[in-house]
Structures are given as structure tokens and as C-alpha cells.
Amino acid sequence: MxxxxxxxxxxxxxxxxWAIGAVLLVILGAVAWVxxxxxxxxxxxxxxxxSLTGASPLQxxxxxxxxxxxxxxxxxxxxxxxxxLDGAQLQHRxxxxxxxxGAQLxxADLxxARLDGAELEGADLRGSDLRGACLRxxxxxxxxLRQSNLRCADLxxADLDGAQLxxAxxxxxxxxxxxxxxxxxxx
Length: 187
Description:
little secondary structure
């Protein structure tokens, strides 16, 4: 008798509808994660519309300018509404008429800066150095100025309604005249 060779036994894995659905969910989750990571990487960089050069006044609303050299940018009357400028170095700069409502300026150095007439409503200026800054007529409503240095700052006519000033350093009338070098930059 001739024996017929049987093919080797192969086991087949049968996937039910639940297992197939689970595999598809894992694959779709991985694709979604890669897509969101790519979008987040694009979001971190400053868009081309956030150029520090161009016609004055600059339009930088919503821009992330942390770490940028702002030394030569003309920021008079510039619009930086909601922009990210934490830790910015803007000491002794002419920022008159700056529109910075809702801007993030925590820890910024604005010592001696001209901010007369600036719109800073709702801005975050926590821990900022505003020594000798000119803030005449500035809109500081609902601004966070906690832990900021406002010594010798000129706040004549500034609107501080709702401003948070806990821990802010401010000059008092009994301290006597301030040295000339730390007086307000309003003149």
C-alpha cells in the first residue's frame, strides 16, 4: 500500500471581531499620536507672521517671542496682545502706546522703560522689574503685578483697578527722594 504523505499541521490563528477591532484601535491610536506630536512641534515655533522687522507698528499678537532678541525691534505702539514674552529684556526701551493686553511678561526686565499710555489690561507681569518705569496713564486693570518691583515707577493716571499687587515692591512717601539714577523715566 502506498501511503500518502500528509502535509505538516499548521495552526491557524482565528481572530474574532473583537480582536480585529482592538488591533485597529492600537494602529489608529499610534497614527493619531504621531499626527498630534507633529502638529505640536509646528505650534512651538513662531509663525512667519511674527517677524520682528517690518512696518511700524509691529503686529505680534499671539506670538511666542520667548528667547528672541528684542534689542532692535521698534515696539512703540506695537500690538503684542496675548503674546509670550516671559523674561524679556526690555529695560530702558521706548514702549509708549504698547498694546499688550493679556500678554505673558512674567519676570520681564522693564526697568526704566517708557510705557506711558500702554494697554496692559490682564497682562501677567509677575516678578517683573519695573523700577523707574514710566507707566503714566497706562491701563493696568486686572494685571498681575505680584512680586514685581515698582520702586520709583511713575503710576500717575494709571488705572490699577483689579490689579494684583501682593508682594510688589513700591516706593512710599516716607522713604524720601530716590537717587537720580532710579527715578522714573517719564521726563
